[in-house]
Amino acid sequence: MFIPVENPIFARNSTQIMARFHTLQVKDIQRETADCVSIAMDIPTTLASEFQYKQGQYLTFKVKVNGEELRRSYSLCSSPLTDNELRVAVKKVAGGRVSTWMNDVLKEGDALEVMMPMGNFYSDMNAANAKHYQLFAGGSGITPMFSIIKTVLKSEPNSRITLYYANRDEASTIFKSQLDALQSSNSNRLSIHYIYDNAPTGHAALYCGMMDVSKVTALIENHGDLTGNCEYFICGPGPMMENVKNVLSQLKIDSKKVHIEYFTAVEEAVKKAEAASSDGKVISKVTIIMDGQELNIDLSSDGPTILDVAIENDLDAPFACKGAVCCTCRAKVLEGQMSMDANYALSEEEIEQGYVLTCQAHPATERVVVSYDEP
Fold first, then answer.
1. Are 359 and 295 contacting, i.e. CB atoms less than 8 angstroms apart?
2. Where do you find CATH 3.40.50.80 in the chain?
3. Number of neighbouring beta carbons within 10 Å of residue 152
4. Domain covering 132-261, topology
5. β-strands 111-115, 21-33: how paired?
6. How many angstroms separate the CA atoms of 115 and 249, rounded?
7. 27, 293 in Cβ contact below 8 A?
8. How far is it, in rounded angstroms, from Cα 198 to Cα 114?
9. Residue-wise pLDDT tens digits, 330-349
10. What is the pLDDT of residues 316-326, one digit of tens each?
11. Burial class of 184 by CB neighbour count within 10 A (0 to 12, 13 to 18, 19+)
12. 371 near 38, Cβ under 8 Å?
């Protein structure tokens, strides 16, 4: 779940809050496809304010599978404006311990440890907006898109949406019946184009096969809009996302208009990052601040990450994915400098302000102070 350090166009959460888990009860589980369920949770009135959310955000779960504590983040498919529930979708993946457990074992009435909503895969809603939202989704990448679609349709009557949704086949298309119903009732504002690897007979060639660069280009030429007030959202398999991102870059789309939600990253890239030599090794005196407490420790620049050191020394440092994706472990460097093995979450502005992903961060100077308490 890592890539070499780069500055993403947009990724997960950039708003640091005190991340805490709360116990929620499973209210309802719905089978969406053969390998995907959606899970709704009861929110006690005492926690209602902490679980307010924006369209496109996600929840982090802490579960025990075969006695091992695991954490995973799943996007909300519900809308804060149209749904009276908090619901995520979980697609079972090969070898995925948590996704398999949630699909096959979890049942209504069970308790789950859930962190408050986080993420910045959204743009602010305004009833006066007249935008064209162009959404590129693949597989379970539809989950945050479904939340965005419902919210835009409700809150921005002058905006329209074009969804490009890639799947293996129609049977594996999550939320298809709900999406078709939304399109039918909002035909002048919502346009959906399903792209299938195994397309049914009669499916036009443009909507068959992988979403490679040529297909993405053709889809935008046929249905897109490069001149209006547009916002672009991308979520799905890594290769598909890279193809869409590259096409938008070639078309000179303003990067501030492009939002990317990374569910996973390229595993091969982390191998390269981990194998990279450590030039100019530094032994640093590091101070880690958490809840007003200080941990002082000597740490090598080629040693464990700040997050691992914090956890090993019993600090309750927040984290979820440990893969440079979710931004839950964000902290601010108050003194000295740090390097990161990977970054899928922080914007250029945040990096300039001194924020790091502590799950990827190593000291780069002889003295470093890093704080989880900074807003």
1. no
2. 132-261
3. 27
4. Rossmann fold (3.40.50)
5. antiparallel
6. 34
7. no
8. 37
9. 999 999 999 998 887 887 78
10. 888 887 888 78
11. exposed
12. no
pLDDT digits (tens, 9 = 90+) for 140-171: 999 999 999 999 999 999 999 999 999 999 99
CB within 8 Å of 212: residues ≥ 6 apart: 243
Q: Which fold does the domain 21-115 belong to in CATH?
A: Elongation Factor Tu (Ef-tu); domain 3 (2.40.30)
CATH 2.40.30.10, the chain: domain bounds:
21-115
Q: Quickly name the fold that domain 278-371 has.
A: Ubiquitin-like (UB roll) (3.10.20)
How far apart, in whole angstroms, are the C-alpha atoms of residue 215 and residue 81?
Answer: 34
Q: Name the burial class of residue 271, with classes exposed (0-12), middle (13-18) and buried (19+) by CB atoms within 10 angstroms of its CB.
A: exposed
Instruction: Give the strand pairing for 160-167 and 132-138.
Output: parallel
Q: Are 317 and 359 in contact (CB under 8 A)?
A: no
Q: Taking the CB of residue 108, how many other CB atoms lie within 10 A of it? A: 11
- What DSSP assignment string belongs to 293-338? EEEEEEEETTS--HHHHHHHTT-----S-SSSSS-TTEEEEEES-E
From the list 321, 88, 119, 353, the residue with the least C-alpha distance to 233 is: 119
Give me the half-sphere count of Cα atoms (radius 13 Å) on the Cβ side of residue 270. Answer: 14
Distance CA 330, CA 17 (A): 9
Alpha-carbon distance 173 to 194, whole Å?
9
Q: Rounded distance, CA 63 to CA 104, Å?
A: 14
First-to-final CA distance of the chain? 26
Range(s) within the chain of domains with CATH label 3.10.20.30: 278-371
User: What percent of the chain stands above pLDDT 70?
Assistant: 90
pLDDT in tens, 304-315: 999 999 999 988
| 237: nearest Cα among 216, 217, 265, 259 | 265
Identity of the amino acid at 241: M
Longest dimension (CA), the chain: 66
